[in-house]
C-alpha cells in the first residue's frame, strides 16, 4: 500500500475553500483511476493550541507506480491541477511507502523537494469519504 497525505495550510477564504473542496475537488479525486481509498477532514485540531493546518486528506494506491500512472491520466491531471490552484494557503504533501516517509512543502506536486520527517497524530473530527475498487 502506498499513501499520500496532503496537509492544507489555512486558505485565504476558509469557507470558499471548503465549498470548492467538497463540491469540486472530492468529485475530481473520486474519478482518478487506480485510487483505492480517499479520506479527508476539513476540521483539523491540535492537542494544544491552534493547528497549523486547515485540512488533511489521505489517498491510498497499490504502489508508487500505480500513483504515477494514475496522475498521468486526464482525471489525475485534473485533480492535481485543481489541488494546486485551489489550495490558496499552500499545502504539505507527505508520501508514505513501505518504511520511508518523505515530505515536501510545495504548491507544485511535480517539483517535490524530498526530506525525511516524522509525523505525530493529529486530532480531527473526521469527515471521510471512502472508495474502493
Topology:
Elements: E1 2-8, H1 14-30, E2 37-41, E3 55-61, H2 64-72, H3 74-86, E4 91-96, E5 101-106, E6 115-116
Antiparallel strand pairs: 1-3, 1-4, 2-3, 4-5, 5-6
Explained architecture:
The protein is an alpha+beta fold and 133 residues long. It has a single domain, classed as Alpha-Beta Plaits. The chain is 29% helix and 25% strand. The chain has helices at residues 14-30, 64-72, 74-86, and strands at 2-8, 37-41, 55-61, 91-96, 101-106, 115-116. It has a 6-stranded antiparallel β-sheet. Helix 1 (14-30) runs antiparallel to helix 3 (74-86).
Q: Which terms summarize this structure?
A:
single chain, 133 residues, alpha+beta, Alpha-Beta Plaits, 6-stranded antiparallel sheet, globular, disordered C terminus
Brief summary of the model shown:
By secondary structure, this protein is α+β, with helices and mostly antiparallel strands.
Shape: globular
Average pLDDT score: 76
Counting structural domains, the number is: 1
Order of helices and strands: EHEEHHEEE
CATH architecture: 2-Layer Sandwich
Strand residues, percent: 15-25%
Strand count, sense and barrel status of the largest sheet are: 6 strands, antiparallel
Radius of gyration: 14 Å
**Arrangement of strands in the largest sheet:** 2-3-1-4-5-6
Measured between the Cα atoms of the first and last residue, the distance is 14 Å
Number of strands: 6
Point out poorly predicted stretches.
98-133
- CATH third-tier fold name: Alpha-Beta Plaits
Structural class: alpha+beta
Name the CATH class.
Answer: Alpha Beta
Percent range of helical residues: 25-40%
Instruction: Tally the helices.
Output: 3
Amino acid at each position: 500500500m502506498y499513501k499520500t497525505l496532503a496537509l492544507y495550510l489555512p486558505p485565504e477564504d476558509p469557507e470558499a475553500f471548503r465549498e470548492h473542496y467538497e463540491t469540486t475537488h472530492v468529485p475530481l479525486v473520486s474519478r482518478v483511476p487506480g485510487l483505492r481509498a480517499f479520506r479527508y477532514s476539513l476540521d483539523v485540531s491540535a492537542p494544544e493550541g491552534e493547528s497549523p493546518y486547515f485540512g488533511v486528506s489521505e489517498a491510498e494506491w497499490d504502489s508508487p507506480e500505480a500513483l504515477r500512472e494514475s496522475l498521468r491520466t486526464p482525471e489525475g491531471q485534473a485533480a492535481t491541477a485543481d489541488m494546486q490552484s485551489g489550495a490558496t494557503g499552500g499545502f504539505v504533501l507527505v508520501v508514505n511507502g513501505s518504511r520511508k516517509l518523505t515530505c515536501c512543502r510545495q504548491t507544485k506536486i511535480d517539483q517535490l523537494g524530498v526530506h525525511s520527517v516524522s509525523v505525530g497524530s493529529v486530532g480531527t473530527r473526521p469527515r471521510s469519504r471512502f472508495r474502493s475498487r
